[in-house]
Amino acid sequence: MWYSNILDTIGNTPLVKLNKVAKDIPATVLAKIETTNPGNSIKDRMALKMIEDAEKSGKLKPGGTIIEGTSGNTGMGLAIAAVIKGYKCIFTSTDKQSKEKFDALRAFGAEVIVCPTNVEPEDPRSYYSVSSRLEREVPNSWKPNQYDNLSNSQAHYESTGPEIWEQTEGKITHLIAGVGTGGTISGIARYLKEKNPAIQVLGIDTYGSVFKKYKETGVFDKNEIYPYITEGIGEDFLPQNVDFSLIDHFEKVTDKDAALMTREIARKEGIFSGNSTGSAVAGLLQMKDKFKEGDVVVIIFPDHGTRYLGKMYNDDWLRDRGFLKDEKLTARDIISKKDVQEIITIDCEKSVLEAINTIKSLNISQIPVTQKGMVIGKITESDILDSLIENPSIKSQPIKNITTAPFPFVDLNTSIDRISAMINKDNIAVLVEGEQGKIEIITQYDIINAISA
Prior knowledge:
By secondary structure, the chain is of the alpha/beta class. It has helices at 43-57, 73-85, 99-107, 127-137, 151-167, 183-195, 211-217, 255-269, 275-286, 315-320, 331-336, 352-362, 381-390, 416-422, 444-452; strands spanning 15-17, 28-33, 65-69, 88-94, 111-115, 141-142, 174-178, 200-206, 249-253, 296-301, 346-347, 366-371, 374-380, 409-410, 429-433, 439-443. The chain folds into three domains: 6-40 and 150-320, 3-Layer(aba) Sandwich (Rossmann fold); 42-142, Rossmann fold, CATH 3.40.50.1100; 331-452, CBS-domain (Roll). The protein contains 15 helices and 16 strands. It has a six-stranded mixed sheet, with helices on both faces. Strands 5-4-3-6 form a four-stranded parallel sheet, sandwiched between helices. Belongs to the cysteine synthase/cystathionine beta-synthase family.
């Protein structure tokens, strides 16, 4: 069997049983793996549907330009379809999205404009506003507007919903999906509830988004809105594709739980999935009391892990946000293995000769330089030697005249790998701000001593 083009391969994605991550759930838990679509995400379905509907209505004309605000996956679906159908693409997105997503869009010839995340939707700098402005300015252009274009949810009513019903032989009792534009969950829910109104639809939201409170109270509370890390779900406005009447419950999941679960899925199930998948599975575990023996739970796995290699699958990125505990030695461990001694510093007004005598008497090779008790630089043996060779009379001058940039500062939780990478010929030590503001110094010798201790 062969296909006329890549667009014919969209849909008919597999349903896979989750075992290890769902071991505490009494129900059968099945993952709808949307990464087998050509753009590696569920958004291929609605991207093609929006384009086809726009072509039929005359909104999208031959040779036109597609302009859309997208976090990446919808853009990928639109870009692939545009390649086959002969359209140009300009996408706006936010600076919180992963670089891999932007690189993937550009690989298909799309232009990507990155906009700030932490602005109101109506702000002229927001990715919504920029895409709308470009639609007005670029001739023969069309903006799909995935948030309010009901072709989005219709795509899932026509394809994803029927697939799930057939694959579970009508036994599905619960649907779990992240809610962003709302098209996926609303389209699938509408189809499934027509088949069986008892099916429970559970939406995954994130902290910083308005969906859960709006569903429960009918109040759009701007105080609920604040920046968050999780990609692909949650919003600070109400897209028309979110049909709250079809969603029985919203479950909020933290950025940390979403990020860590994203990694767990890869390591325990062998499924390389994206950030919103981690949210959905973390939400499943939070809601475990909702499920019983005999239930069949389907979770949407929307996109692929390759788009998050620099984030959820990057240990340093996780550590920087406090999401991952570093099991390697840290600055705290290195300091604890050192002999107890006060750090030696020298005031910037002291003479170069005094610095030489201090270095000789204490048998050290570098000294942090202070001004009014604050570290402002450093002086090393090589700094002094170079200065003396150039001007022997400099011995009587203050050391501030030859002071170089200070050693870099790290905190007590910085890993030994990062500290080692920072120590080189230009920085032969790092400074650590310890307990009660006490300054400590770590040299290459201290690292060796800590490892061999």
